[in-house]
Design goal:
Helices cover about 70% and strands about 0% of the residues. By secondary structure, it is mostly helical. The protein has one domain.
């Protein structure tokens, strides 16, 4: 976190990282298939929202 000179840059990075992390790191083995699909759909919707901005 030392490489960020401004708090704004850190906040922007954290927001994008959280979305990407949620999208790709679902820990499939801990969820049922139905739950995994719901989380995956929510993450994909958020990712599309960020991509359109």
């Amino acid at each position: 976190m030392q490489r960020f000179r401004r708090m704004r840059s850190l906040q922007m990075f954290a927001a994008v990282y959280a979305s990407v992390s949620n999208h790709f790191n679902q820990e499939r083995h801990l969820y049922s298939r139905q739950s995994f699909k719901l989380h995956r759909a929510a993450a994909l919707a958020e990712w599309r929202l960020l991509g359109s901005a």
